[in-house]
Amino acid sequence: MNDSIGSCREDAVHSQWDAWFAEFAEAWQHSDLFGKDAALKAQHSELFEKDPALRVTPGWQMLFRTQPPSGAIAAWKSPTTNDVSWLTSALEDESRRWFVGRLACDAQFVPEALFEAMVKTAVWLGDPSLNNWFLEPCVKYVGRERVAALVASLADSPDLAQVVGAIDALYWIDHAVSRKLQVEKKTFLLAALLAGTSDYLRFRILIHLPLEEEIYPESHKPLVKLAREIRERDPCRESPPTGGFA
């Protein structure tokens, strides 16, 4: 019986959050800025018609600055276990995570239970032009040193995307720690670059990889030369895809 009651309560909480998110997306859709730019509204009308509650993309949301419902902000400030469950899942969703990021900014607070999930979202986002949306509230309300320590710990991983994401995230937090991490991971990044990877990760590695021969062991100096040749062929002047801006 208790399990059944608990399940009903969780369903009710999740339904409330779904409603708040839908309200947020609807408000964003009808932003005054769309009214001022008929061409922009027409450009995205098909997306709204298909699923307005799930068409909150990061670039537009940040531009229009839609405010979340007050009830959502209040729940964010004192989240229950069921609130945390919905919000953690939302951070893993490509659309809803921006609603959570906006909540953190408007509430001027990051709950302890969501701190780690917020930072991990920033590291896994795969876009250094957007990850600060989740990092800045954590730095402001939890502290720079603690955020930097968690990000640096996430770089201790065999997963290339996570390592690169952590270095990218540290750009917004602590440049000294970011540079230290680049040097510590230099042979890992060098090997990943030469082994072949996605265009996006190659772009990020070329930005982060230190190529001073003296900091590498003799065994890796020939690889440094190859990496320099790759950088000359694929200079870091081109902008990487943002994955969210129109």
What brief labels describe this structure?
246 residues, single chain, 70% helix, disordered C terminus
Architecture overview:
This protein is an all-alpha fold and 246 residues long. It has one domain (2-184). 70% of the residues lie in helices and 0% in strands. The protein is built from 15 helices and no strands. It has helices at 2-29, 32-36, 38-50, 58-64, 70-77, 81-91, 96-107, 112-124, 132-141, 144-154, 160-170, 175-184, 186-195, 199-208, 221-233. α9 (132-141) packs across α10 (144-154), α10 (144-154) runs antiparallel to α11 (160-170) and α11 crosses α14 (199-208). The protein is elongated. The chain starts with a helix and ends in a 13-residue tail after the last helix.
- The number of strands is 0
Distance between the termini: 50 Å
Radius of gyration: 21 Å
* Major beta sheet summary: none
The quaternary structure here is: single chain
Overall number of structural domains: 1
Would you tell me the overall average pLDDT?
81
Helix content: 55-70%
Overall structural class, as computed from helix and strand content, comes to: mainly alpha
Query: What count of helical segments does DSSP give?
Result: 15
Task: Give the helices and strands as they follow along the chain.
Answer: HHHHHHHHHHHHHHH
Strand content: under 5%
Q: Which residues form runs of ≥5 with pLDDT under 50? A: 50-56, 237-246
Based on Cα principal axes, name the global outline. elongated
